[in-house]
Amino acid sequence: MKVVRHIAVNVFKESVRDKVLYNLVVFAVLLISTSYLLGQLTAGQDMKIIKDLGLASISIFGLLIAVFIGIGLVWKEVEKRSIYALLSKPMGRGEFILGKYCGLVLTLLINVGIMTIAYYAVLAYLGWTADPATRTSWPASPTDPAMLEAIALIIVELMLVTAIALFFSTFSSPFLSAMLTPGLWDIGHFNDDLRNLGAVTGSPAAASVARGLYYVLPNFSAFDVKAQVVHGQAVPLSYVGLTSLYGLTYLALVVLGAATIFARRDFK
Amino acid sequence: MDAIRTEALTKHYTSGFWRPRPYLALDALTLQVGQGEVFGFLGPNGAGKTTTLKLLMQLIYPTSGRAEILGKPVGDVGVKQRIGYLPEQPYFYDYLTAEELLEYFAAIFGYAPAERRARASKLLDEVGIGAERRLQLRKFSKGMLQRVGVAQALINDPEIVFLDEPMSGLDPLGRREIRHLILRLRDRGCTVFFSSHVLGDAEALCSRVAILVNGHLATAGRLSEMLAFQVRGWELVVSGLTEAALQKARALGHVTGAAPLGESRYALELPLTPPPERILAELMAQGARLVSLNPLRDTLEDFFVRHVSGDARARPSTSLGAGGPEPS
Predict the structure, then answer these.
(1) H or E element: which one contains A162?
(2) Inter-chain touch B95–A90, beta carbons under 8 Å
(3) Which of A98, A132, B51, B203 is deepest in the core (most CB within 10 A)?
(4) Which residues span the domain enclosing A19?
(5) Is residue A268 one of the residues assigned to a domain?
(6) What is the pLDDT of residue A15?
(7) pLDDT digits (tens, 9 = 90+) for A96-107
(8) How many domains would you assign to chain A?
(9) ipTM score
(10) Is A93 a member of any domain?
């Protein structure tokens, strides 16, 4: 596991030196400027909108990092041939894949962590400066800890997207991976529609195929509880736990698949 | 136990997307390299040298045959702990400094932080990287990257080091330094397996060589034996030789060529028989004085060219024949 750790730290170092964390500045500017503008335009609804926008931004920024770094994670090593010297060192190819994966997840965790702190800081400031009448109209406290549940599920979702990007990166070009990964993410958000397709079409064959796809494709919509927490609706911890377990199991299988494909590759 | 052993190691590739055509990159290579040897793996571009090294590093898998390093199958993590590898035209993480790269690789070998720093520093000194070691590798020239590549191949004090074209991209001074480094490795008992198409390097360094042509092993053996086998006469330099004595020797067939060097000195080409001592005695009896006597033999370059052209004639390429492009 030491090898995995060293590879992961190196991936993180690459992200920092390639200025990936600059996205945090964009995030902070976006959040603060939007909060200010909405505060000028709306009364009472601004807190919900800002909460929603903040969570969506954390998700989108994380998604961009997961996809655009993830798809080049292995491909770049192979294409630039830096992998030759590395794989001749005492490690298995599985450790290489796991290290790369953990490195990107570490980058994402630090990113999301910093964005979350910035998010709560802006919300706390808005809550502190709001007048009491406006405050009573809010369905939940500005710094409602329930939002952490939504952020936890965003993290699991991003970990799964990273695993999928890494999987494609082990055998296809970044261009193809850049089509397939967001494509799969998009389909995964409409997964519930696949389950209901049978009832709509009336064709047993189509219903079976749709149902099969429903079970095979990742159900990304399950990770999205942003609307509930923004509106102050309770999300049971058991739901968060089970959904996380589903995500972690799925991503473990995807990383295993990536390692299996990678183990058989020839580096010409 | 051999340091390296391959048995009928074969690799086919396929090229083309719509109509894939197989071609043979390496054809049943059987080779043994003893421990402590400096072994030269020679051949022209596309001969299969890099393919062989990649097979030994398990960067590619063989179509058939097998390879062992230190008595264990290639790819064994325990074996990787004991070897070093310099890829051809190495590329490393350009966001790291040379120091950081070496420390990173040392960490993978399991060294403690202080030991990593010490090893990195010592090796960078050894390959002639000075203050530049704290610059990111993206600022390094090709020659400097090659030096860093050699250093990273030695980070674990390997028992066997595989160097793919180690002199590539180096200036004359750099080549000399790497030659000295290889000799120092040999002196401390390290087996060195290096590929090259620069024959002078092999002549200067190798105890044994193998010549690979179009994926096929043309010949392998001790360099001295190969060259001795090719001795085709003698070069005798004499002074005080008269024209009459030269004509007589020519008439007897004892001199097959003569080049005047000025001041009654001649470089004479003698056949293998009769023995040069006898011819020299005859000439000296007529007033000639010995300046030097050397065997006339093929250089490795002559040997190499002959084998390459001979093999190319003997082995016309087929759809599954040798001679396909070497993967980059």
Answers:
(1) helix A147-169
(2) no
(3) B51
(4) 2-263
(5) no
(6) 87
(7) 999 999 999 999
(8) 1
(9) 0.85
(10) yes
